[in-house]
Write a structure and sequence with these properties.
The chain is α/β, with parallel strands linked by helices and 232 residues long. It contains eight helices and twelve strands. A five-stranded parallel sheet has the order 2-1-3-4-5, sandwiched between helices. A four-stranded antiparallel sheet has the order 6-7-8-9, covered by helices on one side. The longest helix has 16 residues. It binds calcium ion. The site of calcium ion has 5 residues, from loops.
């Protein structure tokens, strides 16, 4: 029997925290709810939840701080809860490695579907008896979809789930140009209101991680006025 994924919800508004707990439990997840950032850090130092739903505005240690702390240690997926006015923080959160975000007020159903999608992306490979996928190799860059590992000049590079998906999609279709809406559809897979600048932020982060010179990209090229393509 498989254990249900454990979701940590960090949210200081009790009503939101409770409704979130209820819906996630109903969807079959185990849920731990914490109301402040310090407690969350303490918890994360000893437990390894499968995903963290993280409010950005928290008393004491805020969500960005927790994201930074967690990313320095693990690839645990993070979904941020943000208020509409917190757009700058949202972008920062992405830059620090959050996987997705939901804007308050949100429908609990919407959050559950995001949780499911992120878990599917991050846990979907490796354990099932499916045929191994081909490892992609280019001039100094190796992308292994089976282990979701990336190497640049024989050095492992830590990518978030979303960064990996984006890179893998582009690299599987060398020289094909994708615009930002297509990338949102194919990589984020939701038709919700996700700011297309999300793609820009992820591309920038990806370049910083894999490009020998991020200011003169070798692999992920910008096609001005259109989008992005992968140069093999
Ligand atoms: Ca809050």
């Amino acid at each position: 029997m498989t254990t249900q994924p454990l979701i940590l919800v960090v949210e200081d508004e009790p009503s939101i925290a409770e409704v979130t707990r209820l819906y996630l439990q109903r969807a079959g997840y185990r849920v731990e709810v914490l109301g402040d950032g310090a407690a969350a850090l303490e918890y994360l130092a000893r437990e390894s939840p499968d995903l963290v739903v993280l409010d950005l505005m928290l008393p004491g240690v805020d969500g960005l701080e927790i994201t930074r702390w967690l990313r320095a240690r693990s690839e645990t997926p993070i979904i941020m809860l943000t208020a509409r006015r917190e757009e700058t923080d949202r972008v920062l959160g992405f830059e620090m490695g959050a996987d997705d975000y939901v804007v308050k007020p949100f429908s609990p159903r919407e959050l559950v579907s995001r949780v499911r999608a992120v878990l599917r992306r991050t846990q979907g490979t490796g354990s099932s008896p499916v045929q191994a996928q081909r490892v992609l190799e280019f001039d100094g860059l190796v992308i292994d979809p089976n282990t979701r590992q990336v190497q640049v000049r024989e050095e492992d590079v830590a990518l978030t789930a979303r960064e990996f998906d984006l890179l893998y999609l582009l690299a599987r279709h060398p020289r094909q140009v994708f615009n930002r809406d297509q990338l949102l559809d194919l990589v984020w897979g939701v038709n919700e209101f996700i700011d297309p600048s999300t793609v820009t932020v992820h591309v920038r982060r990806l370049r910083e991680k894999i490009e020998p010179d991020p200011s003169k990209p070798r692999y992920i090229l910008t096609v001005w006025g259109v989008g992005y393509k992968f140069e093999p």
